[in-house]
Design goal:
The complex is a heterodimer of chains A (144) and B (390). By secondary structure, chain A is α+β, with helices and mostly antiparallel strands. Chain A has six helices and four strands, in the order H-E-H-E-E-H-H-E-H-H. Chain A has one domain: Alpha-Beta Plaits (2-Layer Sandwich), CATH 3.30.70. The longest helix of chain A is centred in the middle third of the chain and has 16 residues. Chain A has a four-stranded antiparallel β-sheet. In chain A, helix 2 packs antiparallel against helix 4. The radius of gyration of chain A is 16 Å and the shape is globular. In chain B, a hairpin with a 7-residue loop joins strand 6 and strand 7. Chain B is built from 17 helices and ten strands. Chain B folds into four domains: 119 residues, no CATH class; 81 residues, ACT domain (Alpha-Beta Plaits, 2-Layer Sandwich); 61 residues, no CATH class; 82 residues, Arc Repressor Mutant, subunit A (Orthogonal Bundle), CATH 1.10.10.
Chain lengths: 144, 390
């Protein structure tokens, strides 16, 4: 992250007094042809941990591989400090991804800066009309 | 120190701050008292000239040339300190003359002397003239006494200088005492008699961490960081909300713009320093460039970096999230949060503490819990060769 970009987590103290939380970035990289089963596995893992807020915040690709970055909410500051069940669930969710999708080399990652190419690509993907693009086609549509 | 020291160690004194304490023992080496050793080189008052060069410099050649070039420079000494700078001591009052001669001699060799400075009227003892081996053993004995009695100082050195391991500190302490040794004035007396060598080094040890950090990262940057850390900690100690940037700027007596500039400099320093703490060489560039892959980057070429980052990520999760363990901190979201904000958001310890609403000491403890459990071999073992996928 360059020094003039705003760290996405920097809002933590800017709104002291409101409910503050920490989001952790997790990035996975897969070849294009293997991404569909990866997406299915991810969906299953996310479905099993419905209480943990997850959002797609970054997308990047080249001709062979696709990287996706998820923002996973670890919890509010109190939940983190007290190791609450919700924070533990978030950690377990991340551990599941790391263990079950090790072929995608999950890595902790800084959340993409707002306005970065990665973040813009994720926003564009999320704004797509879901009905018009289904399954593998949605991924292929994204990467052209 | 030998058995004679046991007696002196039990000797109680009243310190300069009117506290009751034990007298720091004198050192004996090969049956010789420290004063007998040090008196082999009489202390003198000197001007010390020190400077740096980009290229290697034969300082012995300069030492030999100085008396020929200027007859007033009769007594000239040199001694290597651990910082690698060149140092020459001349009789007090001759510093200016010597500095100009040194500058000319360097330039004649085609070497640019950088930051030639004089420290005037400093005590100096030519330790090279003492019987070989004695000074080394004297310093070694001193360190053996200091080391177990300086836990908090050692902790601060490890915290101030990222990349410094606890195992490195004893060797660093030896170099610290070695650098001090030529300045020790064995004739100096206090309320409890003559100051001995270990007491002298013990006194200097208090400011060692700050001195090291200043020498490593630059004086102004470290002082800014210390001041900002103090303000942050005092705010948290008062139980108040985190201070706004305006309050922090007021407390430091600078403008908000200036504070932002200083905080950015400190943050950049942290980004450069932190990565090496987890895996030496794991990141070739400051954070960000390795963790973000913009859309126009060749993702495949990042494969090796990704494998390494993935191994580190797995090792961190193994360290902070082990549901199978019955230990109290087996699932430790605070440790994950502190690790993430430190290494992936590039925040310093005080800033992480502020973000998480805890004191800096809690952040240090959380980071230590993670780093202590990380298995370096598992990181190396987890690397995947992108060429064959194994």
């Amino acid at each position: 992250m360059s020094s003039n970009e705003i760290a996405p987590n920097s809002f933590l103290d800017d709104f002291a007094g409101l409910s503050t939380q920490l989001d952790v970035g997790l990035k996975l990289t897969s070849s294009l042809e293997k991404f569909a089963p990866v997406a299915k596995a991810l969906t299953a893992i996310f479905d099993a941990a419905e209480s943990v807020p997850v959002s797609l915040v970054g997308l990047s690709h080249d001709e062979q591989a696709l990287s996706v970055t998820f923002s996973i909410t670890l919890g509010t500051l109190d939940e983190i400090r007290n190791a609450s069940p919700r924070a533990i669930s978030a950690m377990n969710l991340m551990s599941q991804i790391i263990q079950r999708l090790s072929s995608c080399e999950p890595v902790l990652a800084a959340l993409p800066a707002r306005g970065s190419a990665e973040a813009e690509a994720a926003q564009a993907f999320l704004a797509m009309e879901p009905a018009s693009i289904v399954g593998d086609a949605r991924v292929l549509h994204l990467v052209g | 120190m030998n058995s004679d020291d046991e007696k002196s160690e039990d000797e109680f004194i009243t310190t300069s701050t009117n506290r009751s304490g034990r007298k720091v023992p004198d050192i004996y080496v090969r049956g010789l008292h420290e004063t007998e050793i040090l008196n082999q080189a009489q202390p003198r008052s000197c001007d010390r000239i020190h400077w740096d060069t980009h290229e290697p410099l034969d300082i012995r050649q300069i030492i030999e040339s100085l008396p020929d070039r200027n007859p007033s420079l009769v007594e000239v000494f040199t001694r290597q300190w651990s910082d690698g700078q060149h140092r020459i001591w001349v009789t007090a009052g001759s510093g200016e003359v010597a500095r100009e001669e040194i500058r000319a001699l360097c330039l004649e060799q085609g070497i640019d002397p950088i930051n030639l400075r004089i420290e005037r009227d400093v005590p100096f003892r030519d330790l090279d003239s003492i019987e070989p081996g004695l000074v080394g053993e004297l310093i070694g004995s001193c360190v053996e006494w200091l080391y177990p009695r300086s836990f908090s100082v050692r902790q601060r050195v490890a915290i101030e200088l990222d990349g410094v391991d606890h195992d490195d500190i004893k060797g660093m302490m030896y170099l610290f005492v070695h650098d001090l040794a030529d300045r020790f004035d064995s004739q100096r007396t206090g309320r409890n008699g003559t100051l001995n060598f270990t007491a002298f080094a013990f006194g200097k040890l208090k400011t060692w961490p700050q001195d090291l950090a200043r020498a490593t990262y630059g004086r102004s940057l470290v002082e800014d960081r210390v001041a900002l850390g103090r303000i942050s900690e005092s705010s948290q100690a008062d139980g108040g909300l985190p201070m706004s940037i305006v309050d922090r700027a007021d407390a430091l007596g600078v403008s908000v713009t200036e504070l932002r500039r200083r905080e950015a400099a400190i943050s950049q320093l942290a980004q450069v320093r932190r990565p090496d703490m987890i895996s030496s060489g794991a990141f070739d560039e400051p954070f960000g460039s390795t963790t973000q892959i913009p859309a126009d980057t060749d993702v495949s070429e990042e494969a090796l970096t990704r494998s390494r980052d993935a191994a580190i990520t797995k090792a961190i999760f193994d360290a902070v999230n082990d549901p199978s363990s019955a230990s109290r901190k087996s699932q430790d979201p605070l440790a994950l949060a502190a690790t993430y904000l430190t290494f992936w958001e590039g925040l310093g310890r005080a800033e992480v503490a502020r973000q998480l609403g805890v004191v800096p000491k809690t952040v240090s403890a959380a980071l230590s819990r993670t780093l202590e459990k990380i298995d370096a071999e598992s990181i190396e073992g987890g690397l995947v060769d992108p060429a064959n996928g194994t």
